[in-house]
Amino acid sequence: MNEQKSGGKKMIKGSKRIGEVQVADEVIAMIAGIAAKEVEGVSSVVGFADGRLGSKVGKLGVKYLEKGVKIDAMQGLVSVELGIKVNYGSNIPEVTQKVQERVKSTMESMTGLSVTDVKVKVTGVEVDKNN
User: Fold this and answer.
1) Which end of the chain has less Cβ packing within 10 Å, N or C?
2) Is 3.90.230.10 the CATH classification of the domain at 2-126?
3) Could you give the CA distance from residue 5 to residue 82 in angstroms, rounded to a whole number?
4) Which of 42, 58, 63, 55 is nearest to 120 (CA)?
């Protein structure tokens, strides 16, 4: 697979005997965001505002999860950077390790791309408002 620009957007492109497959960076980012959100202890995925982590998007829905994920894809290799908020009381090292493992395995199984690294930034702690 290799990288190609299409209409101003980067896409990962691969070809097989029967045709060509393209996966937009936005789709790859969405997969990473959903995978991270599925990990127990993650309350939300947070967004990148002008290259900095900041705006919260995890509670806005699946459509916006890719906003909290930065993808660097080149020649079938993908590097992922994402920000999360964790639930109060969660073991942060354990949660972040699980996020890294989940994002890597999900992305590799769904896209066929090799994930070189997953960088996770914990930007906050969410307190359960019911307590």
Assistant:
1) C
2) no
3) 23
4) 42
